[in-house]
Amino acid sequence: MLVGLLPAIGVLLSYSHLTLLYSLYSFEYAWMDHRVSVNHRIAMIEQQWPYFVGFGLPLTVATALPSSFIISASVFAVLFPLFLIIACDTEPVAADVFRLRAFRVVEWLTDALFRRLHPTSTTAEQKQSSCQ
C-alpha cells in the first residue's frame, strides 16, 4: 500500500487498514448471504471498528511476520477459511465510539471514477445517507 511509504506512521496506518480489510473480507460472505448492501457493510465496519480491528488483527499479524511473500500468502490461504467460518457464526458487537472513516478516500476515488464513466449513477455518499 502507498500509505506504508509515509514516514513514521505509514506502517501503522497500512497495517491498521489491512486489519479492517481482512475483517471485511471475512464477513463479506456472510453479509452477501444476508443481502447486506456494500455501503451498509462499510458503514458497519466504520461504526464498529474496535470489533473489526480485533477480529482482523490476528490474520494481519500472522501474514505480516513472514519475510517471504510466498510464505505470507500460504499463511493467509490456510487461516482465511477459518476466519470465514468464524465470521459466519458471529454477530459483530456494537461499540459506542466515534465513526472511523477508514474507507473514505477509496469511496471518493470510486465515486469519482463512476461519475466519470456513468454521469447519471448514484454515488456512495448518496447511498450512504440512505443507510443512516
Give the gist of this structure.
The chain is mostly helical and 132 residues long. The protein has helices at 10-33, 38-47, 49-64, 69-88, 104-117, 124-131.
Give a verbal description of the structure.
The chain has 132 residues and is mainly alpha-helical. It has six helices and no strands. The protein starts with 9 loop residues before the first helix and ends with a helix.
Structural class: mainly alpha
Radius of gyration: 16 Å
Treating each run of at least 4 consecutive H or I residues as one helix, how many helices? 6
Question: Which percent range fits the helix content?
Answer: 55-70%
Q: Main sheet?
A: none
List the helices and strands in order: HHHHHH
Question: Terminal Cα separation, in Å?
Answer: 30 Å
Proportion of residues in extended strands: under 5%
Question: Spans of 5+ residues with little confidence (pLDDT < 50)?
Answer: none
**Total DSSP E strands:** 0
Shape: globular
Average pLDDT rating: 85
